[in-house]
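hiii, so i know i said id send this last week but things got crazy w the move. better late than never?? heres the sequnce for the chain we talked about at the cafe, plus the structure i predicted for it. fair warning i was half asleep when i ran it
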Amino acid sequence: MHAEKLEKERIASERAEDRDASVASSPSAYNGPLYTYSSGDLDEKTGPINVTWYDGDFTAQNVKQDMLDDGWGSIYVPSFSSYVGYETSNGDVEKSEDKHIKEEAGLVPGEQWHGRLYNIPDDYYGGHEVVGAAHRDPADHGIAPGDEQWRFDDARDKFVDTWEGLGYSSSSESVGNGDDFSSSDGDLEVIY
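okay and structure toks below
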């Protein structure tokens, strides 16, 4: 949590230096969780947060349902939990995902587009209500040795394409959380 707080402070400082005139209807700057972790101890990063739903009474449940209604769904069920951490006025919170959303991808059984969805307190995070960690699971889900490409950017774009197809807008924001992941550019897509 301390490391993420320092990263967010650095990003906020860079934003202040690069601030352009903003459109009043555009989403507020993101300051929520940056990564998913393998445990509630928040000690091993597993992926970047790369999509968020903003100011539309979104919940992880209705995000999942809208995507299921749009044709998402998968017979591939197994998924390990990943965790995010965020701060509130009552202290730090560590939690596992609220929902998973998946869609089959590829010819090899087990390959799938996958997003872990987390509800966050929008009043504390400037209107950002749900955050997601979108990626593409390889068939072995990273169990076999080797450097798996989780295709974070491709998965984020697939999520955005789905939501733009549903009539929503999106905007991109650099949050600088891609350095540890070869298939991530550190950008976050905001759906509103």
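btw The first strand starts at residue 35 and ends at 37. thought thatd interest u
miss u guys!!
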